[in-house]
Amino acid sequence: MHTVNIHEAKTHLSRLVEQAARGEPFIIAKAGKPLVKVMALDAPTGGQVRRLGFLIGEICVPDDFDRMGKEEIEQLFGGDA
Question: What is the reported pLDDT for 4?
Fold first, then answer.
């Protein structure tokens, strides 16, 4: 994320807003001190980031996943398979 000073933000506001809308947020600073963060309205905040289920449809777990390699594992641990 890059930082721009107020003068630069005023000069290039249209371009900066377009970039933020595309998911490239930026910070506006005054005298080098960060003041505000500009980001797209639909961008998730820290509490909104969804982790569970983020790979839905990307991977497939077989129905027998919990039994895969059962015989080999039992043999490794001295079982009778």
Answer: 96
Biggest CA pair distance of the chain: 77
Residues 6+ apart with CB under 8 A from 16: 4, 9, 26, 38
Determine the Cα–Cα distance for residues 25 and 9; give it in Å rounded to an integer: 13
- Write phi, then psi, for 4 (nearest 5 degrees): -125, 150
Low pLDDT (below 50) residues in the chain: none
Go through the chain and tell me how many residues it has: 81
Q: Which CATH architecture has domain 2-40+50-76?
A: 3-Layer(aba) Sandwich (3.40)
